[in-house]
C-alpha cells in the first residue's frame, strides 16, 4: 500500500468502520469491543516506557495478536490499538511490529498514525459535536474538548493534534490547549480522569486461556508449559495442579 495522505486515511478508516465494524461514519468506536469483534487476541502487560505495544499476524493471516502497554495512559492505549489494527489489516508487508515512542519518519508509521486518528476521531463526528461559533473562530473551548476526548476515548494530545490536522482549530489555539493540565481541568468539570491514567494491567481479550487448556488436554503441551502460559496472563499463579 502506498503512503496514505489525510484523504486516503479517512477513506480507509471509513472502510473498516463500514465493512468490518458495522458502525456509522461518525459514531465512537470502542477499542476493546473492536478487538473482540475482530477476534484479535490481546494482552495488556507492563512494558518499557519506550514501547507502546506490538502486533503479530500469523503467516496464514488467520490469527492476529496484540500486546498493549498497561503503563500507557488509557487514551494512549486506544490509539496504540487503532495504530496496530492498520498493520494487522492494511500493511502491505505485515510482520511482527513494535510500536515505539520515538519520532518516526517511516511512511508506513505515518500512514498508521493517520489511519488511527481517522478511525478513532471521525471528522463528521467531531464537527457535529463542536459549536458553530467555535468552528468559525478555529478555537475550541476546554469544555468542548473534554467532551470530545471522553466521547471518543482518546488522550488530550491526540485530540488536539487531530483537530489541528483537520484545520478545525488554529496552530495557536492548539498550542494553548496543549499547555493545559488536562487532568486538573477534567477534575474541575467533574470528568472521570481515568482516561488520562494508566490501567488494564493483566486484562486479556480473546480465548488465550481456552486455547492453552485445549493444548494441554490434547497432550500437546506439558502441565508445566500450561501453567507457564497461564502465568503469562495472570492466571494460575501459585497453582501446582491442574483442574483443582
List the helices and strands and how they pair.
Elements (H helix, E strand, L loop, with lengths): L5 H16 L9 H7 L2 E6 L5 E7 L6 E6 L4 H16 L7 E4 L6 H14 L2 H6 L3 H6 L4 H11 L3 H10 L5 H8 L3 H7 L15 E2 L2 H10 L5 H10 L12
Parallel strand pairs: 1-3
Antiparallel strand pairs: 1-5, 2-3, 2-4
Helix pairs in contact: 1-4, 3-4, 8-9, 11-12
Question: Can you give a write-up of this model?
Answer:
This protein is of the alpha+beta class and 244 residues long. Helix content is 50%, strand content 10%. It has 12 helices and 5 strands. Helix 1 crosses helix 4, helix 8 runs antiparallel to helix 9 and helix 11 runs antiparallel to helix 12. The longest helix is centred in the first third of the chain and has 16 residues. The radius of gyration is 20 Å and the shape is globular. The termini are far apart. The C terminus is likely disordered.
Provide keyphrases for this structure.
single chain; 50% helix; five-stranded mixed beta sheet; globular; alpha+beta; 244 residues
Amino acid at each position: 500500500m502506498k503512503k496514505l495522505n489525510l484523504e486516503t486515511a479517512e477513506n480507509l478508516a471509513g472502510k473498516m468502520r463500514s465493512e468490518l465494524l458495522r458502525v456509522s461514519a461518525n459514531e465512537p468506536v470502542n477499542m476493546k469491543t473492536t478487538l473482540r469483534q475482530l477476534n484479535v487476541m490481546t494482552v495488556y502487560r507492563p512494558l518499557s516506557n519506550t514501547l507502546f505495544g506490538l502486533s503479530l499476524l500469523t503467516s496464514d493471516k488467520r490469527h492476529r495478536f496484540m500486546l498493549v502497554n498497561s503503563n500507557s495512559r488509557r487514551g494512549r492505549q486506544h490509539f496504540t490499538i487503532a495504530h496496530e489494527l492498520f498493520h494487522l489489516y492494511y500493511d502491505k508487508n505485515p510482520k511482527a511490529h513494535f510500536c515505539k515512542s520515538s519520532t518516526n519518519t517511516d511512511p508506513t508509521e505515518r500512514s498508521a498514525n493517520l489511519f488511527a486518528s481517522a478511525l478513532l476521531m471521525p471528522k463528521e463526528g467531531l464537527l457535529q459535536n463542536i459549536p458553530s461559533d467555535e468552528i468559525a473562530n478555529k478555537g475550541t473551548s476546554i469544555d468542548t474538548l473534554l467532551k470530545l476526548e471522553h466521547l471518543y476515548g482518546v488522550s488530550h494530545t491526540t485530540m488536539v493534534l487531530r483537530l489541528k490536522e483537520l484545520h478545525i482549530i488554529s496552530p495557536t489555539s492548539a498550542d494553548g490547549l496543549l499547555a493545559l493540565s488536562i487532568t486538573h481541568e477534567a477534575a474541575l468539570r467533574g470528568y472521570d480522569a481515568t482516561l488520562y491514567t494508566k490501567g488494564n494491567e493483566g486484562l486479556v481479550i480473546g480465548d488465550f486461556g481456552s486455547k492453552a487448556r485445549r493444548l494441554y488436554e490434547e497432550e500437546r503441551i506439558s502441565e508445566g508449559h500450561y501453567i507457564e502460559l497461564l502465568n503469562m496472563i495472570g492466571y494460575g499463579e501459585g497453582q501446582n495442579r491442574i483442574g483443582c
